[in-house]
Write a structure and sequence with these properties.
Strand order of the largest sheet: 4-5-10-6-9-8
Number of helices: 5
Distance between the termini: 44 Å
Radius of gyration: 22 Å
CATH topology of the largest domain: Cathepsin D, subunit A, domain 1
Shape: globular
CATH class of the largest domain: Mainly Beta
Number of domains: 2
Bound molecules: 2-acetamido-2-deoxy-beta-D-glucopyranose
Structural class: mainly beta
Strand content: 35-45%
Number of strands: 35
Length: about 500
C-alpha cells in the first residue's frame, strides 16, 4: 500500500498529470486496495420479494474488505467497507462474541489496553439493525493507519455486545452516523479527519469496484485514477431532502434506461419523463429497478422468479447473451453488459441438474427507492465528493493495469478530468426518519438550468436504508428514511 505524490494540475486537464515519486510531505492521495470476497453465508432465502430492505439483506453477495491498523503499535483489522453507513466500529477481545480464544480472527480484534494512543470518548455507541441485530459499546479515538498513512484521533465504536465477528468501515455522510439518528451531535468522521490532518484536500473518495471476477478493487481517498475509466467523468449534483441544506445520501437522478443488442439496436425502457432518484450503494449486491422495468429485463434474459429462490433465477449459460443495459444520467450513459448481471448462485450448484445463476436486477418493492448496487456499480467509476455534494461518474475499464492517480483539490470543481452536463436535474427528497426527525415538504430547486417548476414532478415514496454488513449478512441500520421524492425535470 502506498500513497503517491501528485502534481495537481492548475486547470482541468485534457491530458494526464505526472506521478512523481512518493513524498509524504505533499502527497494528498491515500490509495487503498481492497479485497472482495463472497459473503460466507450467502444463500438464497425463501422469503418473498416484497420487502426490499430484507431482500437486500438476504442478497448480500460480495463483501469489500480493507486492511487497516488501529492504535500504537498498530493492531491489524480487516473491515467491511460501506458507503451506506457512517460509523467505523471494531470488535474487541472481551466482547460477548469474541471472548472465546480463536474467535474473530479473520476480522481482528482491537484491544484498547495495548495502545498508547487510545483515548476514551464519552457516550454510548449503539447501532441497531432492522432484523434485531446490533452492535453496542463505547466510543474511542485512536490512530488509524490506512493505505500506508496514519490518521490520528479517529473516532470509532468498540462493540462489547453485538452480533458480528467483523467490524465495519462506514464512510458515508456524517449526518448518517448512528448517534445522529438518536439526536446526538455528529463527530468528525475518518474522511474529515484526513482533510483536517492535511492528508487529502477535500472530503472525496473514488471507488473502482472492478470486474465481478477480479479479486480486488481500489478506493482512493482524495484522488482519482484516470487509468481506471474512460475519461471524462461526468459530475452530477446529489439530491437533498426537502428542507435540508445538505445532501445526506449518495442519490442522483437516473434520467433514462434502455437496452441495446449486439447490433446496437436500442429499446428505451424509461425515458426522461420518468426521471427517478437513484441511490448509489456499494452495500447492495443487486440493482433494484421499478417492477415493470425489472420484469421486462427479466423476461429479456429468460430469467424466472421462483418461489423457492429469493431472486430471479437464470440459466448461467445466458452469459453468452450479447447486449447492454444502459443507464442514462445527466450527460452520460453507463453501459452494463447483460452478462455482468448474471451471478453464480454458488450455494445452489447444479440444482435439478441446472447450473443456476441469479439475475442481478430485482423489482423494487412498493415504497422503496431505486438502488444501483454492485451489479451496476462494477461498470462505473464513481467519485463520492461529500464536500461539493456531487457524484462524478464514468464508464469503468475492467481489469485495467494502467494507473494514473490525480489529486482531488479543494473547493468547487476540484475533481479533475470531469465534464458537467449543460442541463442538470435536481432530485429533491421529502420525508422523515422514524425517530422523529422530519423534513418539511416545501420543495425548492437547488441547482441547474430547468429547475423547479419547469417540468414534470414524479413522486413516490421511498425507503432508504443506510446499511452495514454484519458477519454473514447485510443488515439495515436503524436510520431508515421513509419519505417521498419529487423530481424536477
Ligand atoms: C489484507 O491482509 C491480509 C492478511 O495480511 C492479506 O492476506 C490480504 O492480502 C490483505 N488485503 C489487501 C487488500 O491488502
Ligand atoms: C478499555 O476497554 C475496557 C473494555 O474492554 C473498558 O472497561 C475500559 O474502561 C477501557 N479503558 C479505558 C482507559 O477507557
Ligand atoms: C440500542 O438501541 C436499541 C434500539 O434503539 C435499543 O433497543 C437498545 O436498548 C440500545 N442498547 C443500549 C445498550 O442502550
Ligand atoms: C477480469 O479478470 C478476471 C480475473 O482474472 C476475469 O475472470 C475477467 O474475465 C476479466 N474481465 C474482463 C472484462 O476482461
Ligand atoms: C416517454 O415515455 C412515455 C411512456 O413510456 C411515452 O408516452 C413518451 O412518448 C416518451 N417520450 C419520449 C420523448 O420519447
Ligand atoms: C441451460 O443452458 C444450456 C445451454 O444452452 C442447456 O444445455 C441446458 O439444457 C439449460 N438448462 C436448462 C435447465 O434449461
Ligand atoms: C412540482 O412540485 C412543486 C412542489 O410540490 C410545485 O411547486 C410545482 O408547481 C410542481 N410542478 C409541477 C409541474 O407539477
Amino acid at each position: 500500500m502506498r500513497s503517491w505524490l501528485l502534481v495537481f494540475p492548475l486547470f482541468i486537464p485534457t491530458g494526464f498529470s505526472t506521478i512523481v515519486t512518493r513524498d509524504d510531505e505533499i502527497s494528498k492521495v491515500i490509495r487503498v486496495p481492497f479485497s472482495k470476497e463472497r459473503a460466507p453465508g450467502f444463500k438464497p432465502s425463501k422469503r418473498d420479494n416484497t420487502r426490499t430492505a430484507l431482500q437486500k439483506i438476504d442478497n448480500k453477495d460480495f463483501l469489500f474488505y480493507a486492511n487497516i491498523t488501529l492504535g500504537t503499535p498498530g493492531q491489524n483489522l480487516r473491515l467491511h467497507i460501506d458507503t451506506g453507513s457512517s460509523d467505523i466500529w471494531v470488535e474487541t477481545p472481551g466482547s460477548s462474541i469474541c471472548k472465546d480464544p480463536g474467535s474473530c480472527e479473520t476480522g481482528g480484534k482491537y484491544d484498547n489496553t495495548t495502545s498508547s494512543t487510545y483515548s476514551y470518548v464519552p457516550g454510548l455507541f449503539n447501532i441497531s439493525y432492522v432484523d434485531g441485530q446490533f452492535a453496542t459499546g463505547d466510543y474511542a479515538k485512536d490512530t488509524l493507519q490506512i493505505g500506508g498513512v496514519g490518521v490520528k484521533d479517529v473516532q470509532f465504536g468498540i462493540a462489547y455486545e453485538g452480533t458480528s465477528q467483523e467490524g465495519i468501515f462506514g464512510i458515508g455522510f456524517e449526518s448518517r452516523q448512528s448517534g445522529v439518528g438518536r439526536g446526538e451531535k455528529q463527530y468528525p468522521g475518518l474522511v474529515s479527519q484526513m482533510v483536517d490532518q492535511k492528508l487529502i484536500n477535500s472530503r472525496a473518495y473514488s471507488i473502482w469496484l472492478n470486474d465481478l471476477n477480479a479479486a480486488a478493487g481500489e478506493i482512493l481517498f482524495g484522488g482519482i485514477d484516470t487509468g481506471k475509466f474512460k475519461a471524462p467523468l461526468t459530475t452530477i449534483p446529489l439530491s437533498r431532502r426537502t428542507g435540508m441544506n445538505h445532501a445526506t445520501d449518495f442519490i442522483i437522478s437516473l434520467r433514462g434506461l434502455s437496452v441495446s443488442n449486439a447490433n446496437g439496436d436500442t429499446q428505451v425502457l424509461m425515458n426522461e419523463s420518468r426521471t427517478v432518484p437513484a441511490l448509489l450503494d456499494t452495500g447492495a449486491s443487486f440493482t433494484y429497478l421499478p417492477k415493470d422495468i425489472a420484469a421486462q429485463l427479466t423476461e429479456l434474459v429468460g430469467a424466472e422468479t421462483r418461489s423457492e429462490y429469493k431472486g430471479p433465477a437464470v440459466n448461467c449459460s445466458k452469459r453468452s447473451l450479447q447486449g447492454t443495459v444502459n443507464f442514462d444520467f445527466m450527460g452520460t450513459t453507463i453501459r452494463v453488459d447483460v452478462r455482468d448481471f448474471i451471478i453464480d448462485a454458488t450455494d445452489e450448484p447444479n440444482k435439478d441438474n441446472k447450473v443456476l445463476c441469479y439475475f442481478g436486477i430485482i423489482g423494487m418493492a412498493e415504497g422503496s427507492v431505486l438502488t444501483l448496487g454492485d451489479t451496476f456499480l462494477r461498470s462505473a467509476y464513481v467519485v463520492y465528493d461529500m464536500d461539493n455534494e456531487e457524484i462524478s461518474i464514468g464508464q469503468t475499464i475492467f481489469n485495467s493495469t494502467s494507473t494514473n492517480i490525480m489529486e482531488i483539490g479543494s473547493g468547487p470543481s476540484a475533481v479533475p478530468s470531469v465534464t458537467r452536463p449543460s442541463r442538470v436535474v435536481t432530485v429533491l427528497a421529502t420525508g422523515s426518519i422514524p425517530n422523529g426527525v422530519s423534513f418539511d415538504a416545501s420543495a425548492t430547486s437547488t441547482d441547474g438550468v430547468g429547475g423547479a417548476g419547469s417540468g414534470v414532478n414524479v413522486s413516490g415514496s421511498a425507503t432508504i436504508s443506510a446499511r452495514a454488513y454484519l458477519s454473514t449478512c447485510l443488515l439495515a441500520m436503524l436510520s431508515v428514511f421513509i419519505g417521498s421524492f419529487t423530481v424536477f425535470v
